[in-house]
Amino acid sequence: MLVGIVVSTYFYAARARTVTPKLDSPNEIVNLLTSVLFVLIWLSITIPTIRGVFRDRRLLSNGEIGIAVVTRQSSTGGKTKTSRIEYQFKDAAGRQYSGKSTDESRELYEDMETPVFYNPENPAENIALVGATYDVVDA
Q1: How many domains does the chain have?
Q2: Domain ends where: 39, 57, 75?
Q3: pLDDT score of 32
Q4: What's the burial of 79, exposed, middle or buried (CB within 10 Å: 0-12/13-18/19+)?
Q5: Separation CA 136–CA 139 (nearest Å)
Q6: Residue 82's domain spans which residues?
Q7: Does the residue 124 lie in any domain?
Q8: What's the whole-model pTM score?
Q9: Closest Cα to residue 74, out of 34, 103, 45?
Q10: Between the CA atoms of 116, 59, 42 and 19, what dihedral angle is there, to the nearest 10 degrees?
């Protein structure tokens, strides 16, 4: 997808350098709007993904760990099924919190335990290890 953006931007810029930029033709307006729409769609997918990776990295690296109990598990999708879990855990002070996550391992079912990482200042911000988009690697 990124290659498509780079290629279309290159050709659009190359054309703009050789011809005085005018948006008189309906085709040129459609091409410009299509390019802008393509970039907006790409950004709407990419930005949340990157934010999720950084959030998961922060929680896994600096967060507290707890043990959560899966309270609900469901599978969604057609050929490529996705397992979604809901879980509850207690923070260090004993207060109970809940969360939702994708189970990438597809091995968790109701009443099973799983590690969860949470922000000690705001335990409502949490991620189950099986749903994290970031892996902590030992050096």
Answers
A1: 2
A2: 57
A3: 85
A4: exposed
A5: 9
A6: 64-131
A7: yes
A8: 0.69
A9: 103
A10: -170
H helices, E strands: number in the chain: 2, 5
- Average pLDDT per run of 10 along the chain, which is 139 residues long? 61 59 70 90 91 90 94 87 93 95 88 95 94 73
∠89-57-65 over CA atoms, to 5°?
Answer: 25
Predicted pLDDT at 39: 92
CA dist 52 → 48, 79, 109, 113, 139 (Å): 6, 25, 24, 23, 23
CATH of the domain at 110: 2.40.50
pLDDT confidence of residue 4: 61
Q: Same domain, yes or no, for 112 and 71?
A: yes
What pLDDT does 81 receive? Answer: 82
- Tokens 């099986």 sit at which residue? 130
Same domain, yes or no, for 74 and 99?
A: yes
Torsion angle (degrees, nearest 10) of CA 43, 48, 51, 56: -150
What's the confidence (pLDDT) of residue 78?
A: 78
* Residue 106 covered by a domain: yes
Alpha-carbon distance 70 to 13, whole Å? 53
d(CA 111, CA 27) in angstroms, rounded, equals 59
